[in-house]
Amino acid sequence: MALLQRRTQRRNTSSRTSHEAWPTSEALSFRELREILHRMPKIDLHRHLEGSLRLQTLTEIALEHGIDLPSYRTEDLRRYVQARNDEPDYHRFLAKFRLLRRFYQSRAALERIAAEVVADAAEDNVRYLELRFNPIALSRAQRFPLRDVVEWVTGAISQAQQTHPVTVRLILQIGRDEVPRVAEEILELALAYRARGIVGLDLAGDEVNYPAHRLAHIYQRARQEGLGVTIHAGEAGGAANVRDAILRFHAQRIGHGLHAMENSEVVRLLMERNIALEVCPTSNLQTGAIYSFSHHPLPDMLALGLRATLNTDDPSISDTTLTDEYLVAVTAMGLNLEQIRTMVFNALDAAFLPEVERASLREQFTAWDTLQILEEP
Questions:
Q1: Helices then strands (H, E): number in the chain?
Q2: Residue 174 — very low, low, confident or very high, per pLDDT cuts 50/70/90?
């Protein structure tokens, strides 16, 4: 209540808008800060379906389908799925997906996993989510047709939105090691399912060993057809990969992009093209892209006026939520609540939405910004 009184006093004695009357993080206890950040309406532009499975769901699917696991106890399974206690390493982090891909055993399993991602996002007060998935990865365990996988996921996401207060759009992902023929098939599926919520195309995977220039024409066509393009770059690779993502792949957003900060020309390119950066701090630490949160370039990105956003990447693997990522940004990187708000609206501006839908979402976020953050829960 004391926190509410302080906030109310600030609001009553200032003619500024409510977000400018937010208390400083220094004036808050850890519990109060987490409470505010959890209640804040959020946008996550960079979340992988394959990295968002609940541990309990993994156990239940494994028992149902006879999947051989090191353990069927949820807590024992944690160390095989999550990276929190691992030595930071990019390829070790990616290896977690090899186990997770064994769980896509049936249509029901895929639909359950997709629906639970929506429910978990809503529980964290994520109000707009762009969820990406690789149809190849989801189809591999049982050799499902790619179109069936896309049909099942889009259907489950659509149904889940009816019972949870979150808007979800989908991005199809292509692996850097994919052959062009299959990559083109994924693009065709993205185009065919635009009416079912697919809004973009992503390139992901081993950035170190697969530059993927042979796939650039697919992303150029995606842009021409009106799809959004986001490219994982500058996470394990250098600034040159970010430049290639923009110039060769016509990226509007960069997944991670940390190493772009090492090259002033690439930073200038990001600024000139107004490219959004999908930053995922906990994942960045676990992959070894940064040595510690205090060395993360996010504060410098914001200081330069880059269009940085905060995201989760793989909540299950990283054992994180978007509230946790906001909390890390404040407590470990020294950002303030106004900077967190700036990144929420950066994400809104960078969302792969038609302008009419973006304007509607902006009205909602502006209303929440005014009413929801500062009121007593």
A1: 18, 8
A2: very high
